[in-house]
Amino acid sequence: PVPCLLLRISLNHTPMPSRLKCIQLRRLPKAPTPLRSVNFRHTTPGSSVVLLTKFKPQPTRELFDPNYPGAHLSLSRRQSLAPRWVSKHFTLYAFPKGFLTKPDVPYSMPYKPRPYPERPRRPEQRSVDMSLQVIAFNSRVMLKPIVRTKIKRRLKEAVRLIVTRGAAVEESRGGLNIVFRMEDVGADKWIVPDWTYVALPTTEMFLMPFAEQIGLMRKGLGYLHRRIPDVEEILKREGIPSLS
């Protein structure tokens, strides 16, 4: 077995993100690869709300990339094809960026639709982009807005630790341990280019310890990473649509 670096997290309380940095990130060893960070800013070129709720129609002409494979499918079909990982406290969706509803004001680069599929990443890069939205619907999360914002940052921090340090969770006599597995480090093992990830947490997800959040996020990302290639093949078979 590959040795892991252990970091024990107490389950008796749930510190806010600023305190988490003091407890955990200060103890992290040097990163095993050039990859240092995950960028979430300016990575989502449209809205996923219609795909999640189907509260109104979404004609092909309103898609961010109307020429994306499968863009001619009905809204219900596009939603049903979207891979999702569901647990009691947390649901994680993945949608092609081409299926997002484009904004009223067009985005400039780097949001201009690229040919399908996206160009591969360079292995030596220090930062990787990820389109991630954490949506806290009022019906699922009953917390003050300021608390929601803080915990959304924590979920993104969990993603960063998984991608750049291979963070995982293991059981021990003292409780849950966060471990760092070098063999799991890398954006190509967790993030699929040109897809937007949407997290739908519940109140319980927000309140649970950070170690448990890492465990759930890791399971969700791993499942979607395995499923997305299958969905891409289905969309390719549907063909390139004409504008509706």
Provide a brief overview of the structure.
The protein has 244 residues and is of the alpha/beta class. It is 30% helix and 18% strand.
Structure description:
α4 crosses α6. The protein has 6 helices and 9 strands; from the N terminus they run βαβααββββαβββαα. The protein starts with a strand and ends in a 6-residue tail after the last helix. It has one domain (5-107, 128-238). The strands form 3 sheets. It has a 4-stranded mixed β-sheet with strand order 3-4-9-6. The chain has a 3-stranded antiparallel β-sheet with strand order 1-8-7. A hairpin with a 3-residue loop joins β3 and β4 (90-96). With 244 residues, it is an alpha/beta fold. 30% of the residues lie in helices and 18% in strands.
Topology:
Elements: E1 5-8, H1 17-23, E2 37-39, H2 49-53, H3 75-81, E3 84-86, E4 90-96, E5 127-129, E6 131-134, H4 145-165, E7 167-172, E8 175-180, E9 195-201, H5 203-207, H6 210-238
